[in-house]
Write a structure and sequence with these properties.
alpha+beta; six-stranded mixed β-sheet; CNF1/YfiH-like putative cysteine hydrolases
Length: 255
């Protein structure tokens, strides 16, 4: 089992976190082996066992991992003791909580997983930032909500987990135009190579964090597309002509 941790987040004893790759689970075939994608076509019993493996690695005291139905939106949910939201029922792409022993997680397969912690307010967040969510303002929405809750950018640490690198993220020209139309400065996130266009999603995500005055950012540079890193990758699956793919899990909990 390969469990990546952020050095910056690991300094805080009040939380635990991790970015998992595809090692160490029960799934078979194209989902081998730690597929945590409850929405994939994998056998549900295998996914449930895999989620239990992850939970026990991160938080033995908790009952289960809280997940949402991800839709590449800019919507988030905040969960506290008063919330009556059941697991995996809400459509959203980020979760914020101040509850202890309540692990929150997001699933990715090339998109950017973001884990956030405010050390003074003891609030955590997990964001699924694909290009659509990032473009629509998921990061801005989460941070603005945290600021309304009394969080301060000086007290916030962010870890950006494994995701697709610019070298492997080819896009079309209309995609590029879409980003440049909202801000000409977004040109810097695109490069041309052999008459093809490539987009730097992690750097775009970082820029969104910096716009909101986040200084403590840890970027774990692991490309999900590269087979040697052993992550689930939607683009790699398309290349291999698979009809589905597993999901990597990124998780954070207040102890």
């Amino acid at each position: 089992m390969i469990l990546l941790k952020s050095e910056k987040l690991s300094k805080f004893k009040k939380i635990n976190h991790g970015f998992f790759n595809r090692d160490g689970g029960f799934s078979k075939g194209i989902y081998k082996s730690l597929n945590c994608g409850i929405g994939s076509n994998d056998k549900k019993k295998h996914v449930i066992k895999n989620l239990r493996v992850v939970k026990n690695k991160i938080s033995k005291k908790s009952k289960q991992i809280f997940l949402v139905k991800q839709t590449h939106s800019n919507k988030f949910i905040f969960i506290n003791k008063k919330s009556k939201i059941r697991n995996k029922t809400k459509k959203a792409d980020a979760i914020i909580t101040d509850m202890t022993n309540f692990p929150i997680a997001i699933l990715t397969a090339d998109c950017v997983p973001i884990l956030i912690y405010d050390e003074k307010k003891n609030i955590i967040a997990a964001i699924h930032a694909g290009w659509k969510g990032a473009y629509k303002g998921i990061i801005k929405n989460v941070l603005n909500f945290m600021y309304k809750k009394g969080c301060n950018s000086k007290n916030i640490t962010v870890a950006i987990g494994p995701c697709i690198s610019q070298n492997n993220y080819e896009v079309k020209n209309d995609f590029r135009k879409k980003f440049i139309s909202i801000d000409k400065k977004n040109k810097i996130f695109f490069k041309n190579r052999n008459q093809r266009i490539y987009f730097n999603l992690p750097d775009y995500v970082k820029s969104q964090l910096k716009i909101h005055e986040i200084k403590k950012i840890d970027f774990l540079k692991k490309d999900t597309f590269l087979k040697k890193n052993n992550y689930f990758s939607a683009r790699q699956s398309i290349k291999l002509k698979h009809n589905d793919y597993g999901r990597n899990i990124s998780i954070i909990v207040i102890n």
